[in-house]
Amino acid sequence: MSQEYHTRQTLLYKLIDSNDEKSWDDFVKYYEGYIYVVIRSLGVKQDVAEDLLQDVLVKVWKSLPNYEYREGVCTFRTWLCLVIKSTVYNFFRKKSTRNDNKNVDYDATLHSLDNITEPEINKIAELEWKSYISNMAWENVKDEFSEQSRKIFEASVHEESNQALADKFDVSTGAVRVYKSRVKKVLLREISRLNSELGG
């Protein structure tokens, strides 16, 4: 695969080029959570989503050699989400053709999946990725901060008012701004690092 679009050896390109077990293990470690949340975002129930996760990973493993980067046309995440949608669709199509009383549920899911266009898949891919990578980055950096900093930052996600946060944690509004700023700076740097490393 050509490296002209990415000089950095991202996890994705390492996997495609080497196809070795270590690169695959790294891929699964970083991407299985993302794949799972995308499956769930397609309206799949938790117990079925867990089974489908394994099906998707197998399909990705088999399909990766055919993945081709097309700048401005199809990002890896869009391609991955199309693989996810296809796997989920085929799963429910097989279920719906069986003669049982649950066909209505399967047919409704199939109809819903049919209505998801590629631009909508791209939106799902990006929206879920931003959320997923932000959560991963926070897990990676949160221990670098004091308990007070962590609590204030986590509370700030749901509360925009610095004054309300200051009152809640019995600190000045200036202290709230400093805590938030410090955490945000480190968090954004980690998000950038992860995006770069994972080919985002």
Features:
200 residues, Rna Polymerase Sigma Factor, Chain: A, 9 helices
Task: Summarize the structure in words.
The chain is mainly α and 200 residues long. The chain has two domains: 1-129, Orthogonal Bundle (Rna Polymerase Sigma Factor, Chain: A), CATH 1.10.1740; 145-200. The chain is 74% helix and 0% strand. It contains nine helices and no strands. Helix 2 packs across helix 3 and helix 6 (118-141) crosses helix 9 (173-197). The longest helix is centred in the C-terminal third of the chain and has 25 residues, at 173-197. It is globular and about 60 Å long. The chain starts with 10 loop residues before the first helix and ends with a helix. 22% of the residues are buried. The model is unreliable at 1-9 (pLDDT under 50).
Fold blueprint:
Layout (H helix, E strand, L loop, with lengths): L10 H8 L2 H21 L4 H18 L12 H21 L6 H12 L3 H24 L5 H10 L5 H8 L3 H25 L3
Helix pairs in contact: 1-2, 2-3, 2-6, 3-4, 4-5, 4-6, 6-9, 7-9, 8-9
